[in-house]
Amino acid sequence: MARPRNFDEDIVIQQCRQVFCTYGYAATSIDDLVEATGLKRGSLYQVFGSKRGIFLEVLQSSLCVVEQIEPSGNHEPAEDEQQNKEPDSELTYDRPEQTVMPEPQTEHQGTSPIPDSTLTLAAIACLELASHDAKIRMIIDQWAAKQQELASALGSNLLKHAGIIGKP
């Protein structure tokens, strides 16, 4: 019998968002996400299925995609992630206290109303995943269709993130 969750999924998604924004998708390990959230590896797999499942939830939540493309909990772990899965783990924190950094308010250069973390996640999705992941591409396509001057905002965010203009 599954135990009830002892954590707020929205807080976990915010914590994972910060990690993905810092390292990108490919450079983020499950260990990074475990450390950031304080959850056990098995708990993350049970809720999200895989690192890709976590990224999908983070991306959908950040882009405010209303329709869930792939519901959480139904993701198959990637082969390399499956070997690290903890069997029959409980949904508990490894650490007693967790804090979440507040979402940065619009600190952009330019006039984009889109938060920097959202632009960063969209850029990561485009650069690292969309060319070979149809679901990621569909999420970005849905979101981009609703944005005005997205190319300019993404370009400015990439330059800022790289330290070329302003502070990342």
From TrEMBL:
One of its GO terms (molecular function) is DNA binding. InterPro entries: Homeodomain-like_sf, HTH_TetR. It holds the Pfam family TetR_N. Keywords: DNA-binding, Transcription, Transcription regulation. Residues 70-114 are annotated as: Disordered. Residues 29-48 bind DNA. Residues 6-66 form the HTH tetR-type domain. PROSITE patterns: HTH_TETR_2 (PS50977). It comes from the Bacteria. Residues 82-97 have a biased composition (Basic and acidic residues). This is Transcriptional regulator, TetR family.
